[in-house]
Fold these 2 entries.
Entry 1:
Amino acid sequence: MLSIENLHVSVADKPILKGLSLAVPSGEVHAVMGPNGAGKSTLSYALAGRPGYEVTAGSATLNGDDLTALDPSERAAKGVFLSFQYPTEIPGVPALTFIRTALNAQRKARGEGEIAAPDFLRLARAKAGELKIDFEMLKRPLNVGFSGGEKKRMEILQMAMLAPKLAILDETDSGLDIDALRIVSEGVNAMRGPDCSMLVITHYQRLLDYIRPDKVHVLAAGRIVASGGPELALQLEREGYDKYVAKTEGVPA
Amino acid sequence: MSLAKAIETGDLAELPSRRDEDWRWTDLRGLVRSLPPRSGTYVGNLGPGLFDALAEESVSIVNGENRTTLVLGSGGEHVVAVRYIAGPGAGAHTASPKLEVEKGRLILLETLEGADAAYLSEIDMTMKIGREGHVERIVLADDADEAISVLRWDVTLAPGASFAQTVIATGARRQRIETHVAHPGGGASVRLDGLYLLGERRHADITTVVTHAGVDGTTSQLTKGVVSGQARGVFQGRIVVEKGADQTDARMGHHALVLSDRAEVDGKPELEIYADDVSCAHGNTVGAIDEEALFYAQARGIPEPQARAMLTEAFVGEVIDRIEHEGAREAVRAWVAERLHRQMEKAGEAA
């Protein structure tokens, strides 16, 4: 279970998150929606531990572990996975090598042995097949020259192979056409299970037609200003974020 | 004017200095105050060479003693290891081996090895490659910390010949690796690659001059460097396309990764083109590790030091991938990985 309480995060000394509280029980999928500039990406980066995202107050714990005390690789080993809005190109490192290195580093951090090479390849083949990724593509340097949709599918492939306890999907729908969106969503839905909390961060409701959330939260001006069931997403789609933006104006940092 | 001449005549005024344009980043005259005695004959066990297992034959040139001429003209493929060794207590020495390959394929696996001494060494090799000759050489230049070491190679190709070279330089007090290629065109091809891995206070200078004199020649050059500590890497690459050397295709790239604030890279790629119908390009970049990529790898669970090492190895891997001889390629890959690992550990301790 992910538990965020009164989280304050600054970037370059500018407060972005201003007392955000949120709990995502294991097995649930929560959507965080909000207007541009609300702090959606800051929330995902702060949870993943990106340098420059300074937690000035509050806490974020995953199954009792204080995430803010850990460096990014330690968080990953505890089960945090961030699907990047803009996945980075890693020249010279084949996708398969990268994923195997990541998986083994996580296992090592947890005191587990390395995955056997045949087991790894079998897993990679199976997951790539589900996501309609040509296995040959996994031999190419990760994300180098990949299309937007290929990069997103590669993110979901990594998520499937790393089997996180907290999956954060940061604007995963951006840049996807309708077919890619369906494939990616199916990949995400396959990850739903009793051990995984999911945080789906999105500007648009569209993705939530495919990944049905248990709860929807509205993030505006650095805090959660409304929460509800899936119907809240539809209401936002109809009415926009105006009333939440207006409501948060003048809130002190 | 050269280090070899200074060693042979005992005259320090023969040393190249910063006043010579081609030596402005690797000044020797300001550095060497006196010459050590000439290196003696080394008698002792040389130990195994890095490439022994891959080579049919191994030649050792110790303290500049052995002035070898190798002529291989019988065709077929030969793999020969050549070890240039500065033995313990070495002073100053020179060597000038000569090599001719009339036809056939020669793989030269060379190592420059230095015992821990402040030696001065210049090795000048001349190489001629005939019409049906193909040479691939891999040179691992691993001098001692305090050495001053100059390698100068003059390579002359016949039309139709091919020459490929990969130099891996780890620097020294001063290490200069200079390659001159006389390129006749006529379908001859040249690949001239380099890699410098420099930590602490080491200095390496990779200088190349390729002169295209005839129609239809190709040159492909890729040099990469990783510098940390207070090291200094120098790349000077010049491609000259003479009048009439049309349809020349020449590409040069130099890319360096600087891992510390006190390390330095000087790059000077030059194209001098006097022909009309040519395709030439060069690129030169110097930068730090990509912080985005570093965070991405960490966010997937790869601890920072391992992520840095992975990205750095990937950066230099492009040069290693271009080595054609598979055995040598994998031997170099392993050697470079180990060397980088040590370099980054030392950089980590210093930080």
Note: The radius of gyration of chain A is 18 Å.
Entry 2:
Amino acid sequence: MSAVIVNQVSKVFNVDKPNHVDALAEIELVIEPGEFVSLIGPSGCGKSTLLRLIANLIEPTVGNVLVNGKPAAQARLDQDYGMAFQQAGLFDWRSVEKNIELPLELKGWDKARRRARAQEMLELVKLPEFARHMPWQLSGGMQQRVAIARALAAHPPLLLMDEPFGALDEMTREHMQAELLQICAATGTTVVFVTHSIPEAAYLSDRVVVMSPRPGRITEIIDVDLGAKRNEDTREADVFYDSITSIREALRGIEHAAVRGGVDDR
Amino acid sequence: MLFCIALFLVACAWELYKVVGPDDGGSVFGITMIPKASNRAMPHTWDMVQRLGQPENRGGDDPIWVTVAGYSWYTFRLALVGLVLGVAVGVGLAVLMARFRFAERGLLPWIIMSQTVPLIALAPQVVSWSGRIDIFGWEWPRWASVCVLAAFLAFFPVAVGTLRGLKSAPAASLELMDSYAASWNRTLFKLRFPAAVPHIVPALKLAATLSVVGVVVAEISTGIRGGIGRAVLSYQQASTGDPTKVYAAVLGAAALGLMLFGLVVLIDVLLMRNRPQENAA
């Protein structure tokens, strides 16, 4: 059973109104369990929209989305996925552990079970001693790690991430990328990852989905084969640079003007 | 500490004016604008303090500050009931408006308009409820009318502040709750209310002072006995012979306002103790 099936999906915002926007057209995408798939493209290519369709935060205009073999709406009700955004979005008034417990509270878990799982998640993101801290006492990178712990707290098989490291500095960013890969390897989680950084997509992904704007389409899907064990040396390996080159060339194929505005070469 | 210094400075300014100002006032372009500085119009501050120790009326037992404290306590309780009532109504309206767009569009203009109605115009109407309304055998007392009038002033900042607060929850956090398939009610209690607290607290401070104003004005305009409003009125009438008396009541009103405000500050500290401090990174 595939983790995600996006079946002939189109999305139009403001249907039948003067300001209507063709956000996505005829998207066809299948993601297998355990895969790490990045969505990359210039701004306005609908990569975040596609992520929100998979999350069932918005409904497709045409076509359907299956998550874990069930309709996306049902998957959302069952909390089959966890989500992380560019801003960590932790609740100021809750301690770190209480933030991680939020999805479990909504699932109706009892307190002891929640506490135990929150501690387990904090070990996973290497912040075990920060359970009682308040989010604003943590650095940006640490907050983002708590957000990932929260997204994974209910052990969902699927993790949806929308530029989660976009607001972090370069050093923290590379560090977080390595940790995310370790966490996914340890838990076997499938990841759909929206980014506009080419090296980030190359380093993290098994497959990179390159998208073009107006309306958003998939122009190419690039396989990245950096081997199962990526580490800091991978960033200097030839095969890493080859992947970056092929992603960049795929993006260059897309309308020139849009590329200059929306994609950076970090 | 700063408060005491400020109080002292105000007293100094008062006494300074008494030295400088003309005793029987003055007029600018034929309009009387400069207040009289005579001992009858502006008694010395030390006379006011001294008056606190003397009985309300000649031959009385307790010093006037005890009597005034009793009036203040009565008014404090009415103001507290008015505040609680106002907060309940304000929060209720805010939730309703946050939940339904049409409720916001329908109600908000009325809520704003309600504050343009002068309280003294409304007071006799509301007071006339007593004896006419009978809720399951509980006859509407006059003090309840005073509370309603206080609540009428107090609910406004709470309704507006809470509505703003409920809407202040970040879009990403709302999306997060959506991704958990959380119902509107659960989002209200887990996200919207906690996010609204920094907006609700200042609204509560406004509401606390307004409910005191509301009770005092309602007491004066309805002539209800037992509270500080009535005391201000009757002491004022005695001011020709006993000019310092009314200031005892004014001090009492100020003290009760501070008490209610202090109560809200306490709530503030309790609610905000784990929030980010402004100087924190």
Note: Chain A has a mean pLDDT of 83.
